[in-house]
Amino acid sequence: MTPLLMTRGLSRDFGGLRAVDGVDFTLNQGEIRALIGPNGAGKTTFVSLVCGRIAPSAGTIAFNGSDITRLPAHRRVRLGIAYTFQITSIFANLPVYDNVALPVQRTLEDGRGGGAVRAGVMEVLEKVGLADRAATPAGQLAYGHQRLLEMAIGLALKPRLLILDEPTQGLADGEIESFIRLVREIAREATVLIIEHNMKVVMELAGRVTVMEAGKILAEGTPAEIRENQAVQAAYLGTAHG
Ligand SMILES: Nc1ncnc2c1ncn2[C@@H]1O[C@H](COP(=O)(O)OP(=O)(O)OP(=O)(O)O)[C@@H](O)[C@H]1O
Predict the structure, then answer these.
(1) What is the CA(205)–ligand 1 centre distance, in A?
(2) Can you give the pTM of this predicted structure?
(3) Do residues 119 and 24 share a domain?
(4) Pick from 117, 144, 187, 206: CA 20 to 30 A from residue 35's CA?
């Protein structure tokens, strides 16, 4: 089976700092994979390379067997790579509906009318549980609901790979439970790569876990294997962990 995502020797320098250092990473279709590691390990830089927000200093990225290393971000979105936008990119003055309608329109072929947009928007809002707030200005949503809107915007792109960067940060315990259910449902249709600091979420959700430290992959395995891994424990003890 061709992996959905494969990186070889992927690296990124910032001045003298090699933030991502020769990463060979493979993600298969249908997985929920957690990416963990101490602060500054290179997790956000790694996923930014995958979605094309930044360019690599060395190495290659293949998506579903095609080399995408030099493709601009918007072309990767069209291939099905979605990276959840930070809340700062939500249009606070626009209703929830409009925030989702923009990405839905991008996935529809030209000339498809408002009916298709409306159906696409409402399908996504129902999935994340925001359908009854479609008319609410996004900026008036509670924090947890804004995080759900962020997920909705990602889902509206109908991704094959959904990349979530610390999605549960700032959520209350009850909201985290519904988030876990939502990701499981999403994973029936899309592969999920999730950067997550909350170990409970990692243990419940991920099929496999990849651990990064100082730009490299330190370990990979099932949640249980990773929990028992001595090198992983040492990495977390040695660095402040947020
Ligand atoms: N645009 C940038 N310019 C300079 N250095 C950067 C830049 N982005 C990241 N870095 C550095 O690269 C290293 C990796 O950062 P990155 O944000 O990828 O780590 P992370 O694992 O996502 O950390 P966290 O868990 O704190 O979000 C850090 O030392 C960081 O300071």
Answers:
(1) 25
(2) 0.90
(3) no
(4) 144
